[in-house]
Amino acid sequence: MNWLDHLPILPVVLPLFAGILLLALRNRSLALQRGVSMLAALALIPLALALLGTTADGTHLVYKLGNWMAPYGIVLVADRLAAWMLLTTALLAVFALLYATKGTDRNGRHFHVLFQLQLFGLNGAFLTGDLFNLFVFFEILLLASYGLLLHGGGRLRVKAGLHYVVINLVGSTLFLFSVGTLYGVTGTLNMADLAVKLAATPAEHAALVQSAALLLFGVFALKAALLPLYLWLPAAYAHTSAPVAALFAIMTKVGAYSILRVYSLFGGENSGPLSNLLDPWLAPLALATLVLGMLGVLASTTLRQQAAYLVVASIGSLLLAFGLGNAGALAAGLYYLPHTTFAGAALFLLADCIARARGEIGDRFESGPVMPRARLLGGLFFVLAVALAGLPPLSGFLGKFMLLQAALDSPMLAWVWSIVLITGLFGVIALARSGSMLFYRTHTAHDPAALTAPTNAVLVPVAGLLLLVIGLTIWAGPVSDYAAGMAAQLLEPRQYIEAVLRAAPGSPEGLAPGGASLVGGER
Amino acid sequence: MEALIAIVIGVLTAGGVFLALRGQTFPVVLGLTLMSYAVNLFLFVMGRLAIGVPPVISDAAAGYTDPLPQALVLTAIVISFGMTAFVIVLSLKARAELGNDHVDGRHEDSHEGRSR
């Protein structure tokens, strides 16, 4: 029995079993729960690295659940992009969890269970090769995210949570309508098989599959918070607890990932009625999202709100890269994705530290007391602001530079350059203003006892995420080479389709008894 | 038969959308439920309507009905059932925390709270 055969499913089942184990341990000490949860999150890193190493040469690992051949059974597919997303998620999860163990997980029950199930849903969504299974994993990660978002309770959190839940339920319904239509026309749900069947759609069904595919795009755009479907995000992210907001930095990227995965298969060059389906939509909407997100950043009244709008703006940049669609732009977007995830998450964590250190005034942009350890907090904020605003020398600058370079031969050149550069300037202004408001316009504290100095232990996750951003800068060469490899693979959907459909039923070792029911598909 | 089912799905969806756009949480929950009914029916019909034929291929049968949408609907029903239970509990919590059942937590006596 070679465990490597089961590598693609391990990142999915490990958090599931850890979550179930944590549920069984719910009445035991918090230290034990923290230990189990942390170990499970840490174990995801070597698994993601192993997948990254195996897929680096361009192979597609196809894992057939229950050894049912595609397209009859559900398959998990690990390629370069999936491994990249898994690694980003695992690294982010470790630091968010580290921060949560400093007190957030004490505010309510079952934090660690929900956290692990959230990872289960995320990893599953990145690995699955089946459209309905993607829906199931979306529901899993959403249900866990509802719990995490509301964890700890509070008036504003419940209000923002209600909006978030209702809008996502509507999104799930639309997802099912779209999947149902695609199944009704093609008779398959396997993404590779769908790509083949959709490309050969007869002309009388062309309008039907186009509307279904655009509906699906709408659902993914809702998850990704693309204009005009971003309204739920700022309130939800600004009012939840810091580690949850940090973990949610990857949630919008799930939407972006799904757009990239699905439309690289269905909406590429030679896809029949769906050829270049998103071209008139994605890049213009992404540019508008970038502008609106950055205006939100300028207009924010608290640091957490500003961080939430920075997430919206970063989704704008990311989807702009995916919308331009050439190899250079895709590589730029995929290089930018982990950068913006880590930097955005670090800002949510740092905003929480700053809010505690300022006592009653919290993270509002008003003149407040001098913070304890202001130099350290200020230094971290400065480095983070440089990363987020896309200034040299950090990876935000490199990502934007690659994006601008890739836009050179695009018909939208003037729009892309002007909007990206002007919003970049807005970002610098907004973050400089926030920094000077928080750290310079201060007065002596009346009641120093009310201010909580951040301990080193609390700042470790922030610094860790910052080190990841710096690492992305130092190893920019190999990382951008890898991103170019991912882009090349995405632009050749043939390989993916052939790898999935040619995968014959494997040797008996490939059998996973009951595997299909594990991931919630009744098929 | 097809026309009847299509009309039923359309009416359910329209009612669901209308209710989901209301201002109080209870109609919103009802609207979401109606929409999930509509989509379940829709998924079921996507296997085409076939009466009195077996769900799996057998040599003796003249035709068969697609079993996959039934499995999909089963999954979708379970998920939407769980989600509805969750959103009801959340609405009750919002009612307790915000003091009224408006989705934005507005006060009952305000003009807008009434008119919606």
Tell me the series of helices and strands of chain A, N- to C-terminal: HHEEHHHHHHHHHHHHEHHHEHHHH
Cα separation of the termini of chain A: 26 Å
Please name the CATH architecture of chain B. Answer: Orthogonal Bundle
Return the structural class of chain A.
mainly alpha
- Rg of chain B, Å, rounded: 20 Å
Residues in β-strands, percent of chain B: under 5%
Largest interface: A-B, 33 and 37 residues
What is the molecular shape of chain B? Answer: elongated
Query: Radius of gyration of chain A from the CA trace?
Result: 22 Å
The biggest beta sheet of chain A is recorded as: 2 strands, antiparallel
Strand ordering within the main sheet of chain A: 1-2
Q: What's the CATH class label of chain B?
A: Mainly Alpha
Number of helices of chain B: 4
Could you list the spans of chain B in which at least 5 consecutive residues all have pLDDT below 50? 110-116
Helix content of chain A: 55-70%
Main β sheet profile of chain B = none
The overall pLDDT average of chain B reads 85
Summed up, the helix count of chain A is: 21
CATH fold field value of chain B: Helix Hairpins
What can you tell me about this protein's structure?
The complex is a heterodimer of chains A (523) and B (116). Chain A has a domain at 279-474. Chain A contains 21 helices and four strands. Chain A has helices spanning 10-24, 30-55, 80-100, 111-127, 131-150, 155-186, 191-199, 206-224, 232-239, 242-248, 251-266, 282-299, 303-324, 327-357, 374-389, 395-406, 413-439, 456-474, 476-490, 493-502, 515-518; strands at residues 61-64, 75-78, 368-369, 442-443. In chain A, the strands form two sheets. Chain A has a two-stranded antiparallel ribbon. In chain A, strands 3-4 form a two-stranded parallel ribbon. The longest helix of chain A has 32 residues, at 155-186. Chain B is elongated and about 65 Å long. Chain B is mainly alpha-helical and 116 residues long. The relative contact order of chain B is 0.14. At the A-B interface, helix 5 and helix 6 of A face helix 2 and helix 3 of B.
